[in-house]
Amino acid sequence: MTTTQTEKMLPGKLSSALHVRRQAAVPRGPYNVSPLYVKKAEGAILTDVDGNELIDFAGGIGMQNVGHCHPKVVKAVQEQASSCMHSCFHVMPYENYIELAEKLNELVPGDWEKKTLFINSGAEAVENAVKIARKATGRSGILSFQRGYHGRTLMTMSLTSKVKPYKHGFGPFATDTYKLPYPYYYRASLGTTPDEVDASILQQIEQFFIEEVAASDIAAIVMEPVQGEGGFVVPSRTFVQGIRDICDKYGILFIADEIQTGFGRTGKMFAIEHFGVAADLVTMSKSIAAGMPLSAVTGRAELMDAPESGQLGGTFAGSPVSCAAALAVLEVLEEEKLLARAAVIGERMHAAFTEMATTYDIIGDVRGLGAMTAIELVENRATKQPATAATARILERCWKNGLLAVSAGINGNVLRFLPPLVIADEQLTAGLNILTTAIAAEYR
To answer: For the chain, which terminus, N or C, has the lower number of CB atoms within 10 Å?
Structure first.
């Protein structure tokens, strides 16, 4: 990142012209973090149509763990596209669907036989996990958590907690879906320990089965091992194990939503590995194929086989091009030791944020797991009032000075960071410097 580049007025002429066209041709529903339009992406650098380079701390919201346009992934896509773009797995299947399923069956935690289904998006993965759970258990109830995010379809909106912008005006929602509390240690009552928070919530769940819905009517509990859109809230090992115990006690299936946390992001292949439990079903997408549309559900073989032939799938589900990309992603993660790299990136970012917090009291909390890190911004550390407006200003200063990042949290006051795991040390340092300057501007 050169001084000349960061001094350019952003957005430039070409991005500005494209934004005018976008507003005329595309509905306002799809949100844009910035009015900049990408022309080229490589590793952890995005170049816009005006030639401005930006360091990527968003990674397509966790989609680019192996980096943009990794040569091995690009080559795999090109070779597959020149051979067979898509025959539809239901019409004439192909080997790389099976090969990828075999690899995920080995990688997903759980000491039991597994099978894998491929579909297109994260929301589709959650939808299909719910279908499988209901079919396998003969029950209809699905539990999710406060602040959880699972997608924009009817079912996944119903499981999602944040009303605006995701749910407002789109009801009525799917029936037999219920919300459970999820630990948020930073915002717990003053003097309450994490252990007390966990014990209280686990007891509330037991009470829920008495007061609201019988446990015998619940098919599954869907949980993000680390909440993504909810603000990168990390539960304790005790809490996650407590949920697993509740599932085992009542014959409820545990669905781990690893769509944002998977494929090395937290320093493990899957975040659930940090908590010493295995899920019955695991949903995956985002970084599974480095930007190609693909998602998956991997689970216990007997559960995956519960739906009958023809009850799962889709025309574009598990395309050979996307499967080729995903197989290349798995090779890159191993060859370049990106799980270990994620831990190093996370340590560096956490240390930098902790240091920033000693200077800037707008930073109320620093948290995360591996290279899935966040800082929560507050107006006042005593009251913990969310600094929502300041968060938006900081993000705008970031992209105007060459750093792309995104927000999260129910109140939009959390800066979340998902840089590609291939980011170079000097790029990471430069990005952190831009962020520091953007936060410091709040004090002028």
So the answer is: C
pLDDT value at residue 9 = 80
8 Å CB contact between 241 and 223: no
Strands 295-300 and 363-369: unpaired
pLDDT along the chain (444 residues), means of 10: 52 97 97 96 98 98 98 98 97 98 98 98 98 98 97 96 91 96 96 97 98 98 97 98 98 98 98 98 98 98 98 97 98 98 98 98 98 98 97 98 97 98 98 98 89
Cα–Cα distance measured from residue 24 to residue 15, given in angstroms and rounded to the nearest whole number:
14
Supply the pLDDT for residue 330: 98
Whether the model pTM is above 0.85: yes
Query: Which residue in the block uniquely carries the two structure tokens 């149509």?
Result: 49
Q: How far is CA 30 from the centre of its chain?
A: 18
Distance CA 266, CA 274 (A): 9
d(CA 249, CA 247): 5
